[in-house]
Amino acid sequence: MSAWAKLTRFARRFVHFKQMDFEFALWQMLYLLIQPQKVYRNFIYRKRTKDQFARDDPAFLVLLSLSLIFSSIFYAVALGLTTWGFVKFFLWVIFIDCIGVGLIVATILWWSSNQFLRKVQDQDVEWGYCFDVHLNAFFPMLILLHVLLPIIYPTLVDSPFFLPTALGNTIWFIAAVYYVYITFLGYTALPILHRTQYFLYPMTFLFISWVATITAGWNISRSAMGFYHYRVRSDD
């Protein structure tokens, strides 16, 4: 089946809610937080049964969209946003932070994997699978940075002192490590690739950055909150 045919079939299922397996999508979300290796075993099974690694059920995407809505509410409360500010924040998160960044990351990793990491020439990495890997890695980041952080920010993180800075920066560090690790698992699950340990290399940079920002007293969470305020501010 061609990539266009797969995309068309995936899009058609958006209007058939009864055909979506929301229970399985919830299972995936849970295990992305506690045991992400299990999630990718299903991707391998799908390849064997349906000849594609990428998801063919939009249920996960629907639930992720709902998660983005509710997590944006947490940030709207933490930032004291108006209703219009909340709408702008949500649109920015879904179209820039999630989809926009995902398109860039998925395309770069799709190209580099096919160019440099393939062991065979008769199969290639599906772009849709690369985007699925991004969505998988994005979900734990969403929970940590858009649910946990805004809840504890006013009382435990919003301060220039050492402990609040260390706590906030550690949450950002864990979220970034989660993203890198789940991305690594996603590409390691593909039997047509080798040398996938390269995907773990950014962890060294993340660790150095974590130590450096805490040592320098830079509270990333406070900077992020200021940036979020800036990008949704209204001129009227």
UniProtKB/TrEMBL annotation:
It is a multi-pass membrane protein. It is found in: Membrane. GO terms for cellular component: Golgi membrane. Keywords: Membrane, Transmembrane, Transmembrane helix. InterPro entries: UNC-50. It holds the Pfam family UNC-50. Its main location: membrane. The chain crosses the membrane at residues 60-83, 89-112, 133-153, 165-187, 199-220. Coiled coil: none annotated. Belongs to the unc-50 family. This is UNC-50 family protein.
